[in-house]
Specification:
about 100 residues; about 0% strand; mainly alpha
């Protein structure tokens, strides 16, 4: 049976792509939220700065959450590959 291995550069690309997609989606969400609720963000910034503040805030959280979700996906994939590889072994209990 061929051993399934994820190379480090593939993991890096998957997590980076997840973070970039999260950045775009979070920024878009923040931009829309800043336009719909400028008074909510105006407490921290001025009238025109509220949209920019919301966009940057959404982008920052999007990078964090997108990267974390992609890293979780890689961890699940690694777990499933390890479980598949060890399926024939009698020492590993099957869940």
């Amino acid at each position: 049976m061929a051993m399934l291995v994820m190379k480090w550069w593939r993991i890096f690309l998957i997590v980076s792509a997840g973070a970039l997609v999260g950045l775009v989606m979070g920024s878009l969400f923040g931009f829309i939220a800043g336009q719909m609720l400028p008074d909510f963000f105006a407490r921290r910034a001025g009238e025109w700065e509220a949209i920019r503040y919301a966009t940057v805030l959404g982008g920052m959280w999007g990078v964090k959450l997108g990267g974390a979700l992609a890293a979780f996906g890689v961890a699940v994939q690694m777990y499933l590959q390890t479980r598949k590889r060890d399926a024939g072994s009698s020492t590993v209990p099957k869940l």
